[in-house]
């Protein structure tokens, strides 16, 4: 079985596969939008896990998938250079301070970038100004390649590419362990819900589709910061 999965699932995937107990599986990870393009271009794939429902649904509408379903949710958070945080700063002040650089993932190629654009839209005029200052640093066709095993927020901030990075909250527990970083939650209703979904593209993928909707898989996802 060949699986293509969103990069934000990489950390949880090993635990999921260990529970699934199927040895003959090949997995590749990347921005979900770019993975969908690879499938549309004819790359073999039995199961596709995306950080949104739009990409799986597009494959179903095109007749490339047998079924689609949501299986988890996520949220966004801010990761900030710790020494840049002032007393009284919150998520809004950090995104509107003109002295701080804002880094994001790439809209269109990576759902994280799309959810970030939703966040900016929900912020009104403040979001318009933040959008103008934000720079897509990862998750695109020509953006910076992340070293294997690294967290985007940690790597970009430590390399002085940005001061604030908007990314998935599922990474927050690991990021909070790094002394040079501060993780800041984004409250509702500003914070969009990232709905993860899959497309089952062949009979080979059906057993894993059933597993991913099982109580065992949901428990593992929750243990890794998903809801």
From TrEMBL:
Highest taxon listed in the record's lineage: Bacteria
Matching InterPro entries: ModA/WtpA (IPR050682)
GO annotation terms (biological process): molybdate ion transport
Gene3D superfamilies: Periplasmic binding protein-like II
SUPFAM superfamilies, sorted: Periplasmic binding protein-like II
One GO molecular-function entry: molybdate ion binding
Signal sequence, renumbered to the chain: none
PANTHER family referenced in this protein's UniProt entry, alphabetically: MOLYBDATE-BINDING PERIPLASMIC PROTEIN (PTHR30632), SULFATE-BINDING PROTEIN (PTHR30632:SF0)
Name the record gives this protein: Molybdate ABC transporter substrate-binding protein
């Amino acid at each position: 079985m060949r699986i293509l999965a969103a990069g934000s699932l990489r950390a949880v995937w090993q635990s999921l596969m260990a529970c699934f107990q199927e040895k003959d599986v090949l997995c590749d990870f990347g921005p979900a939008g770019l993975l969908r393009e690879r499938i549309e271009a004819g790359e073999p794939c039995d199961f596709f896990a995306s950080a949104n429902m739009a990409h799986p649904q597009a494959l179903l509408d095109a007749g490339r998938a047998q079924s689609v379903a949501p299986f988890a949710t996520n949220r966004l958070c801010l990761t900030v250079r710790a020494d840049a945080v002032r007393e009284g700063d919150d998520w809004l002040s950090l995104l509107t301070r003109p002295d701080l650089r804002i880094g994001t993932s790439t809209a269109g190629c990576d759902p994280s970038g799309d959810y970030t654009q939703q966040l900016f839209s929900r912020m009104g005029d403040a979001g318009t100004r933040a959008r103008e200052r934000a720079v897509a640093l990862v998750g695109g066709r020509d953006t910076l390649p992340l070293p294997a095993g690294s967290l985007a927020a940690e790597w970009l901030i430590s390399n002085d590419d940005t001061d604030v990075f908007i990314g998935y909250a599922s990474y927050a527990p690991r990021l909070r362990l790094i002394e040079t970083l501060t993780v800041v939650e984004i409250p509702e209703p500003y914070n969009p819900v990232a709905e993860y979904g899959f497309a089952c593209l062949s009979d080979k993928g059906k057993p894993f589709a059933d597993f991913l909707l099982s109580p065992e898989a949901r428990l593992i996802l929750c243990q890794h910061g998903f809801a």
